[in-house]
Every structure is written in structure tokens, then in C-alpha cells.
Amino acid sequence: MVISSDSRWEMVDAITRQTITYGTYKQTLKDVLGDLTVKPLTGIPVAVAALYAFWSIFTSFAGTLVTDGFMVKIFDGYWLPWLQSVWPDPTSWHYFLFVGNPAADTCFEAFGMLTSGLFVSIGVVLPAVFIFYLMMTILEDSGYLPRLAVLMDSVLHRIGLHGYAIVPTILGLGCNVPAVTATRILETKKQRFIMMTLIALFIPCGAQLGIMMSVLPGNLMGVVMLCLVIGFGIFGFVLNKVIPGENPEILVDVPLYHWPVKEYVAKKLWNRTKGFLKEAVPFVLFGVLVVNLLYLGGVIQALANLLEPIFVIWFGVPKETVGPLIAAFLRKDLAIAQLTTIPMTTYQMVASVVLVTIYFPCVATFVVMLREGWKELCAAIAVLFVVVFIYGGIIHAVGILLGVA
Questions:
Q1: Please, are residues 150 and 163 in contact by the beta-carbon 8 Å criterion?
Q2: Contact at 8 Å (CB) between 84 and 146?
Q3: pTM score
Q4: How many CB atoms lie within 10 A of CB 48?
């Protein structure tokens, strides 16, 4: 039996009258903090500060460990030279598949299963995912995340969602798979469909974010994220207007603030990181293998020639971007890493990264979306292709107007 939103609220009122007794109340410091973080006047600055701290810690930890730390030194200074020295016949097909380009000086450039494949998943992505899940767990267990949901409710209502949609949104920045699953907390089919589609389009996972920081120079990471945020808002608004259905008010339990229990934090962090490794490493290695086989078979070149007018004229990116887009179905972080092997201007790199991000969801996300229903998946894919074509063209047009394309 389906219960309407109004009936749910009537049921809540009835249960409240029967179970709650009222007496004197003494406000505590936790109550004061709780109130301050849900009221817009004080809550918005706190949310901005919290998310800025979240992002700063994420980029500092991941960037330092990968770029300035020992990951690059280990993989480029020891692992790659060792593989190149011990693997027989650098001109063979198996060398190309497993080690990659024999002239490469870095694992990023080599693009072999045992070079780029391991470096992307272990050297770049793992540190980014680890720190993301650690901060996410702390926000979740401290009681701040439900308050952020309440605070974001009025904003997200404009695109057909309610405040708790912020949870799958933030989860998607770690991994789109649990984010799509988390859309079940939303109350209507309309809300779940909009959120699932927006996750697949505009929410880059932690793996992608880690690679983006490695391949995008200067402040271009901010430009890419701005494009994604604008797209999230515009197409969320359009979907809300086009798709029929209810948009009920938020109903969420807001717990008291409390210190996270370190044992629970450690357990959650271990389970989430372990789950990522089980999912990411095999797909990255398999993705490199498939893409290299397609290169050897001439498939990538044939598709690049066929789709050249769309990519060059409409999207404003090199036709060689076809290869990374094929890899994106397996792992989007792998696809973004592959972009570094293509000669491009600064604008083309930004446009290509955005294009890969809003392109077809990775296979793991695809499978989870299929579990939500094949009709919903087909509708989401139709929306996705329309958005990619329209938004990719808009970004190119803006680039032309600004004189950078």
C-alpha cells in the first residue's frame, strides 16, 4: 500500500500525541550549536566553512601524498624502470598491453596494465578515496550531515529534491555506486530518478577527483567543478519541470551532536576502502587491457575518424578523445588519465575532462542503476545522451565567445 505524503505527516502527528510528554527544558551547548547550524543566517557560513575545510584537506592530503610524496617516486622512479628492464621484447604486443609505451618516462604516459593501471588505482586514487571516506565518516557520525540536509532543503527543492539529497550527492564524490543506492532515502520515484540521473552526469567520484588534480594544471580544477555545478543546477531544474510527480517536504531525524566513536569510524573507513579496492583495481586493469586491445585492432582509430565532425566541430576537442570515452565506461578515472596522452590546448583539456565526467556512467554505476529498474535506467541514459550533446555544445560555444576555444 502506498501512503501519500500528507498521510505520513498525519501519522507522525498521531504518534507524537500518543508518545511524547512535555515538561521543562534546559538548553545545552549541543542544542545551541545544533540550532545555529540549521538556521540559514548562521548555518550557511558554517556549511561553507565545513565544505571548504573538507575540500582543502582532501586536496592537500591527496596532492601531497601523490605529487609531492612518495607515490610518484615509487612508481616512476622504481616500478616503471624495473618493468621496462625485465620485460622481454619492447616491440611485442604483450609489452604494449602490460607495460605500454617503451619510450614513456612516467606511468601516466606508459598506459599499460601494470604501469598506468596500478598507478591510477593504487598510487593516485587510493589516497584520495581514503581521505574522502575518513572525512565523510566523521561528518556523518558527528551528527552534522543531517543538519546540512535541513539547511540545503530550500535550495534543493528548486530542482525537485529535498535536503537529504545532499547525502547521495556527497557520497557520489566518493563513489557513484553507494550514491545511487542512497537515492532510496528519497521518497518519490521522481526524486529518485532526478537524483540518480544527476549523480551519473555531474558528480565526479573520488577516483576522478584524484586524477583531475594530477592532470589539470593551475586552477583549472575549479573551472571544471564550476561547469559541473552549473550543469547540476540547470538540468536539475529542467528535469523537475519536465518530469511529473510529487516533491514532498523533508522528514529527517536530527540527532544531537556527539564525538565520533573512533572504533566505528575505523570500521566504516576500512569497509569502504576495502570495497573500493575490490571494485576499482580489477576494473582499471581490465579497462587498460580492453582499450589497448582496441588500439591494436584499429577500432579506436576507426571510431575517431567516424566521429571526428562531432568531436572537433561540436565539442571542440580532438577526435582522439574517443579512446578515453570508451575507457570511461569501465572507469572514468582511467579515461581522464588517458587524456594526458593526447596533445591538447588548455581549453580542450578542460572541455574533455567535463565531457568524460558527464559521459556514460562507469560499468559499476550502470549495474547499480539497472537494479533500480530497467525503465528508469533507459530513461536516465536517454537524458544523459541529450545532456552530453547539449551541454558539450554550450561549453564549446562559451569557449568561442571567450576566445579560448
A1: yes
A2: no
A3: 0.75
A4: 10
Angle 29-36/40-63 helices, nearest 10 degrees?
90
Cβ proximity of 348 and 311 under 8 Å = no
In SS3 terms, the chain reads as CCCCHHHHHHHHHHHHHHHCCCCCCCCCHHHHHHHHCCCHHHHHHHHHHHHHHHHHHHHHHHHHHHHHCCHHHHHHHHHHHHHHHHCCCCCCHHHHHHCCCCCCCCHHHHCCHHHHHHHHHHHHHHHHHHHHHHHHHHHHHHCHHHHHHHHHHHHHHHHCCCHHHHHHHHHHCCCHHHHHHHHHHCCCHHHHHHHHHHHHHHCCCHHHHHHHHHHCCCCHHHHHHHHHHHHHHHHHHHHHHHCCCCCCCCCCCCCCCCCCCHHHHHHHHHHHHHHHHHHHHHHHHHHHHHHHHHHHCCHHHHHHHHCHHHHHHHHCCCHHHHHHHHHHCCCHHHHHHHHCCCCCCHHHHHHHHHHHHHCCCCHHHHHHHHHCCHHHHHHHHHHHHHHHHHHHHHHHHHHHHHCCC
State the amino acid at position 66 in one-letter form.
V
What region does 230 belong to: left with phi over 0, alpha with psi -120 to 50, or beta?
A: alpha
Chain-centroid distance of CA 260 in Å reads 25
Q: What is the pLDDT of residues 294-316, one digit of tens each?
A: 888 888 888 888 888 888 899 99
> Do residues 210 and 336 lie in contact, with contact meaning Cβ atoms separated by under 8 Å?
no
Closest residue by Cα to residue 336 from 359, 313, 304: 359
Of 102, 263, 229, 61, nearest to 159 (Cα)? 229
Cell 525537485 maps to which residue?
160
pLDDT, residue 390, reads: 94
- Pick out the chain residues at pLDDT < 50: none
Give the integer Cα–Cα distance in Å for 128 and 132: 6
pLDDT at 68: 56
